[in-house]
Amino acid sequence: MQLSLLAFSLVAALPLVSAYPVKADTLNCRSGPGTSYKVIKTYKKGADLKITCQETGEVVQGSSLWDKTSDNCYVADYYVKTGTSGYVAPKCSSGGGSGGGEGTLPGLNKVQSSHARAIIAQAKKDGVGRHGCEAGIATALVETNIYVYANKNVPKSLNYPHDKVGSDHDSVGIFQQRVMYYPDIAADMDPAKSAGQFFKKMKGVSGWKTMAVGKLCQKVQVSAYPDRYAKRVAEATKICSAGGL
């Protein structure tokens, strides 16, 4: 009798893990709750996922919920058939990501940090160093506070993952790049690719390597409010430093 009770108590102590089918054709499982995190593995439609816990992250198709699977990676809950838009498993006790410094960056939440890391990674890839990173992050802070914006005036932008919806002319994405000048909407709406477009134009600015960051941002963006960028440089410096630049 005592053995039976002991066995029952051990089973009861184990976390309940429920399985739910993938409803997308393919679904990437990432190291953290956002599309800029590294892809760990890919599931096919109909695959049963064992969800160990859930947490909020980057907004995908209107949902900020991400599911951590038994493979120790995260999938967007929107693409999993759970029968509800809410929680079906406990909240994850630790932050998103699988280590490697993928926590939050100074002054940013998980979603912003995910986007900022994509910008920083692109800065490293494009070889623009700390100076370029500061320009990119400062611009993103001013334009959108490092959120991906779709635009109701650009219907196609609503088809891509986004955090918020704006209505300023035809400006989309983290950098509010105007579609009339940046017609690749898929790139505009992607944190890393939109950063790549920003850095490409930035490197075409004469003397960009030694130009004051705030002035450099304005050279790229040509904003009606040129003084705003310099005010966010100190924040950008901390974020870039924490991100490895």
UniProtKB/TrEMBL annotation:
Q: Which Gene3D superfamilies match?
A: SH3 Domains
**Keyword set, alphabetical order:** Signal
Q: Which N-terminal residues, if any, form the signal peptide?
A: 1-19
Protein name as it appears in the record = SH3b domain-containing protein
Which species? Chaetomium strumarium
